[in-house]
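Q: Cyclase, please. Structure only.
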Amino acid sequence: MDARYLQDKEELKQSAQDVNEDRRAFLTAGLVGGAVAAGTLVASVANAQQVAQAPALTAAPFWPHPKWGKDDVAGASNWITPAKVLDTVKWIKDGKIYRIGRVYESGMPKFGERAFTMRIPGSPTGGPFGANKLVYHDEYLATEIGQTGTQFDGLGHIGIQMGKDGDKNEMRYYNGHTEQEIGGAYGLAVIGIENCKPFFTRGHLFDVEAVKGAPMDAGQEITVADLRSALQKQNMQEADIKEGDAVFFNTGWGKLWLKNNDKFNSGEPGIGLEVAKWCIDKGVCLTGADQWATEVVPNPNKDLAFPVHGELICKNGIYNHENLDFTALIADRKYQFAYIFSPAPIKGATGSNGGPIAVT
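A: Structure for Cyclase:
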């Protein structure tokens, strides 16, 4: 897999040139919009070095998947085998269940112009019926069902424009599927979320906030060195992380949830391309965090828009779980657990809502 990243300087230069002005404007003006003070975005010398060492992006084809082949539509959920489940069960010692998803409500922070509106028509919706006078309630929900609140990114959520901008035959998604193939007003034709297999795997939580001693700032990148510091602090070993495991990052940004939505939406700390490559090399099935993209926003390289999404989801089929809440796990110092989540099998959807749990 390393060949995808170790490209020459000319490819990196061309890749940067291909990033259009709209993406630049989105990150530097639309997304940050002045809401994040310039001081919080000043990169340290170490961070600057990290950017220089980040793997080069490439315009070369990244399909078919080297492990699961050209016809695969399940991505890294293929790691969840009976053997993986049995191995994961060994981690359940005290039988305690932790909800790591957030409550869905209209006031929660949402990306861009996404919406979450629920209505219960009538009061009650129906009844009374029968001699027992039964009444009932229904709800009507209008939202981007897989992309609001605690959200799970499917393989059809992220693509990369190859070739000329606007060419749907060169907008490539996981395993090389094109926008022309999969796109549609009524759902994705090929790599919808219904193809993702349920997750029952080992989870590893990196409390980077604790390593830093305070919540991280928007634009502050989590490095591999930070992960190793967290492992040491939490008495964990890097060798604990096996193929098919899930890894999670606590930045402290989640403390802004419903308390300062504007700041929460303005940017975020998170992983960058270095940690993305580390995750790919480890063969993880999924990444997740306590903020809305898992990756650092804005990226230290101002020409890049959500490059970690592209590398993990699009190129490698590694899923992403956003807006998680690790408060209870951290309070109990539970950093390794069974991660359990079954995406809602909505045919053609780009992602999923739901209630992920950690079991210790």
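A: Brief note, in case it's useful. The CA atoms of residues 63 and 175 lie 5 Å apart.
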